[in-house]
Structures are given as structure tokens and as C-alpha cells.
TrEMBL record:
Alphabetic keyword roster: Disulfide bond, Secreted, Signal
InterPro entries tied to this protein: AB_hydrolase_fold, Lipase_panc
Keyword Magnesium: no
Record flagged with keyword Signal: yes
Segment forming the signal sequence: 1-16
Organism: Rotaria magnacalcarata
TM spans (from-to): none
Official protein name in the record: Uncharacterized protein
Gene Ontology CC annotations of this record: extracellular region
């Protein structure tokens, strides 16, 4: 009984998250697959399926919000540049050489 309640709660949370998301359509050709997977172009795809969710150790897993909602930013710190250098989404030429 408790497991059924938890599964219903999980389904409601995931469905609400997908409906509120502007980047995906829950009722598309992929159907339920969209409830458990979300892709963001430059950051890749995320899933709530095993091994990241739906396991004994992690029974509930949520998909991340969109990068525009989270305001994702990356900073580069090096020995030569002690201050924070923000790295944009486009290729940045900082004159730092190659990896």
C-alpha cells in the first residue's frame, strides 16, 4: 500500500515538472519516455531511470530544471588568472592555450 502511494506521488511530481517545463511536450510521440528523460542542448540528457532513480537507494529522482531557470554559469580559475573569468556558452578565446 505504502509503495503504491509513493509511486503515485512520484508520478505526480514528475508530471507536474514536465507540464511546467517550456522545453518539452509530455504528450508527444515519445509518450512516457519524456516523463523520465530531459535533454538540454549543450548540457546533455538527464534521466530519472535506473541507475539514477527508481532504485532502492534512490527511490525518487527529479529531473533538473532548465538552465535558463537555474541560471547556469561557469567560471575558470587558473594560476595566471586569479580572478574569476566567466566562460560563456559560445566558444571563448581567453588566450589560455590548449588543454
Amino acid at each position: 500500500m505504502m509503495r503504491g502511494v509513493l509511486l503515485c506521488l512520484l508520478a505526480a511530481i514528475v508530471l507536474q515538472n514536465e507540464i511546467e517545463s517550456e522545453s518539452s511536450d509530455v504528450f508527444s510521440d515519445k509518450g512516457l519516455l519524456n516523463l523520465f528523460n530531459k535533454c538540454y542542448d549543450e548540457y546533455g540528457c538527464f534521466t530519472t531511470l535506473p541507475p539514477f532513480g527508481g532504485t532502492w537507494e534512490r527511490p525518487i529522482a527529479l529531473l533538473p530544471q532548465s538552465p535558463s531557470t537555474v541560471l547556469t554559469r561557469f567560471f575558470l580559475y587558473t594560476r595566471e588568472h586569479h580572478g574569476a573569468i566567466e566562460i560563456g556558452r559560445q566558444k571563448t578565446n581567453l588566450g589560455l592555450g590548449t588543454w
